[in-house]
Write a structure and sequence with these properties.
Layout: E1 3-4, H1 12-18, E2 20-25, E3 32-36, E4 51-52, E5 56-58, E6 61-71, E7 82-89, E8 100-111, E9 116-122, E10 126-129, E11 134-142, H2 143-147, E12 159-167, E13 175-178, E14 185-192, E15 202-203, E16 207-209, E17 212-219, E18 230-237, E19 245-254, E20 263-272, E21 277-285, H3 286-290, E22 297-298, E23 301-316
Antiparallel strand pairs: 1-2, 2-9, 3-12, 4-6, 5-6, 6-7, 7-11, 8-9, 8-10, 8-12, 13-23, 14-23, 15-17, 16-17, 17-18, 18-21, 19-20, 19-23, 22-23
Length: about 325
């Protein structure tokens, strides 16, 4: 059972400043419990003025808890010293470069009079990574409140701290989006020989433009609803990854023996794994293409010119 914590020496101002909420509950912390005896010995006889816990595991990651029971604010030397508590990711050599862990955490103090636990729950998600592997609260409570016997935390020189850590395991979807400057147009010329012998569709060999692989499909007598009426011309983005997208400007041309009369159409569109093929079901009429007076098919050969400019690229972030 959770309840708001009142009258236990915890400052509402500190809670607001530090970004945690304070509640009480009857059951012990799930991930770590530290029982400190002879608490007053911290900082005496060569003992460090803080305590760092052993490693513990939560959310398949290793953590440590560090307790500083008597921290003086040097900017306000005449105020009460504070209790500071921090959670740190126990960095291992096995963690990959650029690692990060997103987690929420709660610190606990056992109230030995009330026989319950006071929880200090962070109000936000914390991002642990190599540059900042430690997070916590510099002003959990005043040292005076911690050591006041009437508050129930420190009795018979014994004190109990605890911690729970909840890791957000589902990684976010991260896309890298780039817009190449001064996009260059790569022009690929494709010659179709023995045009009169073509079947339903002609497929080009793969070719490269903008470090990507493409191929062209031409249906000399049309495809689908355009069959026997329009020449269908499409381009396919061959090597598209599952979450990859490419914005490309495409210029498609069936060349004429008189260059100025070549038939040209343009479009700009996103290519992706779910939209690899794009083009024109009726690029031009079948009659015009096959008319020898028009000059598109010469000596039973037809020439295509495909221009590709990469305008934008979206890829998954590297692991």
């Amino acid at each position: 059972m959770l309840a708001c914590c009142r009258g236990s020496g915890i400052s509402d101002k500190s809670a607001d400043e530090e970004g945690f909420s304070v509640e009480t509950r009857n059951f012990a912390p799930k991930h770590l419990l530290i029982k400190i005896e002879s608490f007053s010995s911290l900082g005496w006889n060569g003992v460090e003025k803080y305590y760092e816990s052993r490693e513990f595991v939560a959310g398949d990651h290793k953590w440590k808890l560090t307790i500083h029971p008597d921290v003086q604010d040097i900017r306000r030397p005449f105020t009460d010293s504070m209790v500071s508590v921090y959670l740190s990711s126990s960095v291992e050599t096995t963690l990959p470069v650029g690692w990060e862990v997103n987690a929420m955490f709660t610190f606990f103090l056992f109230n030995q009079i009330q026989d319950n636990y006071v929880s200090f729950r962070g109000k936000k998600m914390w991002r642990f990574h190599a540059m900042n592997p430690k997070w916590g609260f510099s002003k959990l409570m005043s040292n005076q409140s911690l050591t006041d016997p009437s508050n129930g935390y420190l009795l018979h020189n014994k004190l109990v701290f605890g911690a729970e850590v909840y890791v957000i395991k589902s990684p976010p979807v991260i896309e890298h989006v780039s817009f190449p400057r001064n996009a260059q147009c790569k022009v690929q010329v494709l010659v179709i020989s023995h045009f009169s012998r073509l079947g339903h569709v002609w497929n080009s060999e793969e070719f490269t433009a903008g470090d990507h692989h493409w191929k062209v499909m031409l249906y000399p007598n049309g495809n689908g609803s355009a069959k026997c009426r329009g020449v269908s011309l499409y381009i396919e983005y061959v090597d598209c990854g599952r979450h990859e997208k490419v914005m490309a400007r495409i210029c498609m041309r069936i060349k004429n023996k008189t260059e100025s009369l070549s038939h040209t159409k343009n479009f700009s569109e996103w290519f992706s794994s779910t939209q690899r093929n794009m083009g024109f079901p009726e690029f031009m009429s079948v009659a015009d293409l096959q008319d020898p007076e028009k000059g598109y098919v010469v000596d039973d050969s037809c020439s295509l010119e495909i221009g590709i400019s990469i305008l934008a690229l979206v890829r998954d972030a590297p692991n």
